[in-house]
Amino acid sequence: MEIYDCLSKKRWLFLVLLVLCSAAIVRFTTQVLSDDPEITLTLDEPWEDMRQRSSAAISPALPGRVWFGMPKTDARLRFIDPQYGFETPLARFFTIGFKNERVTDVRMSPQIEPLSLDDALKVVLDLQDQWHQQGWFVSSPRSDPPITDTPQGRNKIRGVLGGRTFWQASDKYQIMLGIGRFKDKKNPDQERFLITLELAKPWIPIETK
Q1: What is the average per-residue pLDDT within 86-114?
Q2: Distance, CA of 199 to CA of 19 (rounded, Å)
Q3: Where do the structural domains in the chain lie, given as residue ranges?
Q4: Per-residue confidence band for 35, with pLDDT thresholds at 50, 70 and 90
Q5: What's the superkingdom here (predicted)?
Q6: Phi-psi domain of 92 (left: phi exceeds 0; alpha: psi -120 through 50; beta: other)
Q7: What are the C-alpha distances in Å from 48 to residues 43, 100, 201, 209?
Q8: Distance between CA atoms of residues 116 and 179, nearest Å
Q9: What is the pLDDT of residues 56-99, one digit of tens each?
Q10: Is 64 exposed, middle or buried (0-12, 13-18, 19+ CB in 10 A)?
Q11: Are 65 and 5 in contact (CB under 8 A)?
């Protein structure tokens, strides 16, 4: 009887541990799946700092090379400048440039598939709202004004050149944001759009009157 009781207790403890471990695994898996992978960076920082901080995996920089890296999964950008920070949706096309093992620029399409115009405009307008709230300004207001969700704005986006605007943060950063038609092979009979975003040190002069 004592041997039986001992074995029963061991089985019971094993079952308890199994249940606890299973619950822990479920919580961990849920946490991993619920958190979008991020590339977390600011410009001109050491590449390795960006790698260690980001939750999305990306390869080391090549010493002495001017090149770029790509996250190994879909990832969102979290730009962490203390004054001009912003976040994007998940991106499938996402490159980060480097020179002398330091971050130089970002080129991405903040989406994981071609979007309808309504959905693409939601992304674009949210990004512009973030920049406006964080102190960015439109650097070419006459030639490349903000993208708008108006009949005129939609017609421009549907045009051959699409829509484009430049936003700038003081003399530190500049963004080119574009949106235009994209031929989606998965939905050949539907209207789809691609968003492009480039972030770097200012390269286009501020428009003057």
Answers
A1: 98
A2: 48
A3: 1-34, 38-200
A4: confident
A5: Bacteria
A6: alpha
A7: 13, 11, 20, 42
A8: 11
A9: 999 999 999 999 999 999 999 999 999 999 999 999 999 999 99
A10: exposed
A11: no
